[in-house]
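Board notes (copied after class):
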Amino acid sequence: MLQAIIADVHSNLEAFTAVLDDIKAQGITEIISLGDLVGYGPNPVECIVKSLENNVINIYGNHELALFKDKTNFNPTAQRAINWTKEVINYNKRHPQVKHFFDSLQYEYKKDGIIYTHGSPRGEIDEYVIKKDDFFNLTPEVKMSLKYNFELVETIGFVGHTHIPYVCTSDFYLVHPEWQNYETYPLLLGTKTLINPGSVGQPRDGDPRACYAIFDGATVIHRRVIYDIEKTVTTMQSLMTLDKSLWIRLRKGT
């Protein structure tokens, strides 16, 4: 088993292309996306087409779901981006690859006792299992949430949504890959583990480089990939409907 796990591309074609190139350089052909391939960024259709060209297994994110259901828990900036994305998708809905993408989306994917989902193993598509502030203080509430989620994990669970990479074990050992210089992390037999691959298109851990994870069944390693952020910014600036804050955060990785 050798997989590339990606999440939260968010219509950032430049970041997605750079990550796919890095994945190919590692000789990996199995790619699983944990959702939010679209949203926020300027190239939703192009990212959809590229995912299909690379045989990516795609899972629903809350941004994909918002294109079809009225969701009201988005902030105004996110909602405006969703409204714009919906217009673009509706305009291209007859495109065979766009239709195939949405027809083939899964709410979760399971393989060899491993669960792949967007928000959490318990099926909450927009649940933030571990947020940025939790890295330095796992409160009783967070531990209880983790406990419920680990009960639904057989061995390993991959989740996205927070845009922050981490490895967390069922005994609440939590590590950001930067703390160990992005070295390979061995997964312990008999210990359940949740893994977030970080975000390809909109990192929020203070590092603007795209992030994804490589998984071989026994270890996981997070990789950071440099991409042309300014090219994405320029494209976003040409779309007056996307808020300035969305491209500012790309430069900062926040």
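Comment from the instructor: The domain at 3-252 is CATH 3.60.21.10 (Purple Acid Phosphatase; chain A, domain 2). The chain has one domain: 3-252.
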